[in-house]
Design goal:
four-stranded parallel β-sheet, alpha/beta
């Protein structure tokens, strides 16, 4: 069996930055909580909880004296305002790439012009981005949705940082035809693009493709979709225990990639489990 691990697998810059900030707080014994799970990986969230950094679902759960860590997905301006009103200190771990989109949306919509976000309406990053708009907001998850939507004559279009580039380009094709004054901003994260492109290459050359990541991770699901186009034996695993027994053949070329929320230690454990299948 030949095992190849993607160079761009695992933590992206924004996630690594947020996790480091959280563990620094734990090392300093600062009373902190994260507003929502810091990242979409249950195993890393559990490590944070064991270090004393738990997750809360709302500001109402924050106790006196606690600091709130804003996760890499970012939040709406109303969250910052509510923290200030309640006197809750904030450590902002919003990914700089996401914060840049917030600035784009705020500045463009300042005159009430529409903003179009290509992404998943219930994803926390998209929810946060939409909150920075002063005018109308449309969220389009597919090109079919773009065809069916009632579109404004003038709009800014941005992308959720973790969507597939092909999806964004397909929606753009529709918007360019239907929106007379369209301002385009390519806001898919560079790391996301690199990971997707690498996954395309690895899956095209592999007999088996393994995608490591949390089942609640949007970008991991998109990686799996990308890999399945080129490799019929593509699977997603969250933990080493998810690696199926007797799944690999002796002469298989096996490739592994991982979502942006997958820590290096978990990726390594999955690879060890795969290698054990040879014995």
């Amino acid at each position: 069996m030949k095992l190849t691990i993607g160079e761009h697998a695992g933590f992206c810059f924004g996630v690594r930055r947020a996790v480091l900030k959280a563990f620094e707080c734990a090392d300093k014994h600062l009373p902190c909580v994260t507003l929502g799970p810091l990242i979409h990986n249950p195993q890393e969230v559990q490590r944070l909880e064991q270090a004393g950094i738990r997750s809360v679902s709302s500001l109402e759960e924050v106790l006196p004296g606690q600091t709130v860590i804003i996760r890499s997905h970012g939040v709406t301006p109303s969250v910052y305002a509510e923290c200030e009103k309640r006197g809750i200190p904030v450590i902002d771990a919003t990914c700089p790439h996401v914060a840049h989109i917030h600035d784009l949306v705020r500045d463009f919509s300042a005159q009430g012009d529409a903003v179009i976000i290509v992404g998943e309406a219930d994803h926390p990053e998209v929810v946060g981005i939409a909150g920075w708009a002063d005018g109308p907001v449309l969220i389009l998850p597919t090109k079919e949705a773009a065809e069916a939507a009632e579109l404004p004559p003038k709009a800014l279009v941005v992308a959720q940082t973790t969507i597939r580039r092909k999806l964004f380009e397909d929606v753009l094709d529709v918007l360019r035809r239907r929106v007379p004054e369209l301002t385009e901003r390519m806001t898919i994260c560079t790391a996301t693009g690199q990971r997707q492109k690498e996954a395309e290459k690895l899956s095209a050359e592999a007999d088996v493709m393994v995608v490591v990541g949390g089942r609640n991770s949007s970008n991991t699901k998109k990686l799996l979709e990308t890999c399945r186009i080129r490799c019929s034996r593509a699977i997603q695993v969250e933990t080493p225990e998810d690696v199926p027994d007797d799944f690999f053949n002796r002469d298989d070329r096996v490739a592994v990639t991982a979502g942006a929320s997958t820590p290096q230690w978990l990726l390594e454990k999955v690879c060890e489990r795969i290698q054990m299948q040879q014995k």
